[in-house]
Description:
Layout: E1 13-17, H1 29-38, E2 42-44, E3 46-49, E4 55-57, E5 80-82, E6 85-87, H2 95-98, H3 123-137, E7 146-147, H4 150-155, H5 160-169, E8 182-184, H6 187-197, E9 201-205, H7 212-223, E10 228-231, H8 246-252, E11 256-262, H9 274-284, E12 288-291, H10 294-311
Parallel strand pairs: 1-2, 1-12, 3-7, 8-9, 9-10, 10-11, 11-12
Antiparallel strand pairs: 3-4, 5-6
Amino acid sequence: xxxxxxxxxxxxxxxxxxxxxxxxxxxxxxxxxxxxxxxxxxxxxxxxxxxxxxxxxxxxxxxxxxxxxxxxxxxxxxxxxxxxxxxxxxxxxxxxxxxxxxxxxxxxxxxxxxxxxxxxxxxxxxxxxxxxxxxxxxxxxxxxxxxxxxxxxxxxxxxxxxxxxxxxxxxxxxxxxxxxxxxxxxxxxxxxxxxxxxxxxxxxxxxxxxxxxxxxxxxxxxxxxxxxxxxxxxxxxxxxxxxxxxxxxxxxxxxxxxxxxxxxxxxxxxxxxxxxxxxxxxxxxxxxxxxxxxxxxxxxxxxxxxxxxxxx
Length: 312
C-alpha cells in the first residue's frame, strides 16, 4: 500500500477546477458531471451573485469572457467601458436574465465546440448534482465553492456570506462534517463564513512571508480557524523546482495544503512537463490539487502510486 506524504497519509484529492474546464466551458453542469465521471474527488465552483441575490457558478465579475452576452441584443445597452474594455457586469443582471445566457469557452487554446450549449448554473444546481453523484458513488462528493469578489457585492448592498449560508442551511450542509468546503482570498470574509456556517475553510494565498519564522507564525494564526491553506503552486518551489518547505511547515501547523492551478495546456515551468509538475506536488505531500484536466491528474496520481509501490 502506497504511503503518501499528505497530512493524513491518504492519496491527494483531485479537485475539478471549475469542472473539467480543460474540456468544457468552465462552470457548467456538464463540465462538473464530466469531471465526476472521470473520477475527480471534488468539484469547485466559483460563486458570484446576481443583482437579486442568487448565487451563480461563475469566475469573473464580467460576463463577456465566459458567456454569450455580447451576442444578446436585448442586453446591448448594459455594456460598460472600464479601462478600455467593454464588458457586462454580473451585478447588473437579475437571476432570470442570467438564466437566459449560455456558457462559452474562455480559453483561446481550448475547443469552442461546446459554446452556447450550457446554462450558467445556480449554486443550488451544483449542490444537487453533487448530491446525485454522491448517491451513485455511495459516499459524499465534496463541493468546494470560492466566494469571488465579495467587496464588489457588499458595495451593491448584497451579502455573499448570508447568501451562502441560506443555500447551505436549506440543504443541511453546514458544519465541520459537511461535504462543502469554503475558500476565499479575503480571509475576513472567509472567517465570517466559517463562523456563520462552521464548514471546513481553506485560506487562498497568493503570497506568504519569505522569512521562515514569519511564515510559520502566519500559518499558526490561520490554523486557529482554518483547516488548510490553498496557495498558488509557485509558492511550493523555487525557480529551479526545489521545495520551499511550505508544505512541511503547513503540515507541522496541522494545516492541509491545496495547491492551484495545474493545467495540461499552459507552461509547467520550472518543470519539463505537466506530468513532472504534478509528480513534484505529489512528492511534497500536497493534500489536494486544483486541476483543469482532472483525468490527466488522476492518471498521474495512479502512476505516482505505482512507481512508489515498485520502489518500496
